[in-house]
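SAMPLE LOG
Freezer: B-3
Tube label: C17
Construct: single chain, 320 aa
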Amino acid sequence: MQILVQAETFKLAQVFTISRSSRTEAQVLTVRINHDGVVGWGECVPYARYGETLDTVRAQIESLGAINRIDLAAALPAGAARNAVDCALWDLEAKSTGARVSDIIGLGPLHPEITAYTLSLDTPVAMEAQASQNSFRPLLKIKLGTPDDMPRLEAVRRGAPQARIIVDANEGWSAEVYSDLAPHLVRLGVELVEQPLPASEDHALLGLDRPLPICADESCHDRSSLKDMEGKYDYANIKLDKTGGLTEALVLRNAAREAGYGIMVGCMVGSSLAMAPATLVAQGAAFTDLDGPLLLAEDRDQVLKFDADGVHPPAAALWG
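STRUCTURE (predicted):
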């Protein structure tokens, strides 16, 4: 078994801004695992918020020898490095056996899922224009987390009066700000708010009145996160770069449902290869946010299909 790691860059269609930073490109690591002439691949997006860089994640991956999915969970912690390797191992198994990953897992027939489309943080005027240009999309996601959130949200609603809306505060609020904004979010038809408080301060959500559902993002990594989420959140945002791959993501999804949480499946900004395994986790999710390829100016040679029905599961030529 040979594990190869390659850094790749994909240009974004436009500058993408959240409350923490702006970017013009997606920097990813592509992992290829060659075993007996069969190559499986996966992609991860190292994320600075979790102390990851391209170099540190590469070093984690290159520290591995021959590995299988069972041993991988002990060899690497949940995070981007384990994600890319785990997904590559799943792809390798599919290509080696001629069976689709969805069949190996036992998911049954797969279906497209409506995905959110994320609007970059900008001035209210610019965000209204973005909303208007994308008003045909059934679900919009708005990046907030600044003192000027309400003018931005009002502008988006004007630009897309019929679209469903979810918002992501990216840890940018306090409990007081959430309580003040929540009635206005409800008035404007917002269906969900992601991570309003910093993960380190989310104890303030305990006992807080929640007139609209709150989804854990930075506070939800793998199944071990669920205990600390109790009483604070209504939904769990499952991202493969947080769980450490498809294997743990499926376990987390089942455990979260059993614990009474709604399911959201999200992503970092990456290519179709990064989203492909996540489309399996997104089957039947209440909210799907796998719009990474829609934000790119360039993608893989084989790409995911997006249409009015949503994001489709990957063709075998792409992954799985």
